[in-house]
Amino acid sequence: MCEFKIYRKSDGSQIAEDILVLSYTDDYELILKDVLGMGEQLDSALILDVNTLNQKCVILQHPLIRDFIELILGLDEQKISKSKVDSLIKKLEDIKNRIKR
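Above: the chain's sequence. Below: its structure in C-alpha cell form.
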C-alpha cells in the first residue's frame, strides 16, 4: 500500500503524511485521507505530481484553481454558463492589472 507525503509546491512544506486517498468533492475541493480515513480538504488545489517510488505528492494551491477546474469540467460536460466564464475572465483581468511590467 502506498502512503503519500503531501507537499505544497509554493514553499515545499509538508501538508500531510500517510495519505492513501486524494480526490475532489463536488465543490472541487481536494480531499486528503489517511489510513484511518481522517484528513483534510484543501480549497482551490491541484495535484501537480504523484511519485509512487518516493511516495510523494506535490500540490499547488491558488484561488484561481477552483474556478479553472469548474470551467474545464463544465466545458467537457457542455454545462458551463457565460457568467462562470465572465467571472474567471474578470479574476484574470484583475491579476493582469496588478502585474507590474
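The two ends are 49 Å apart (CA to CA).
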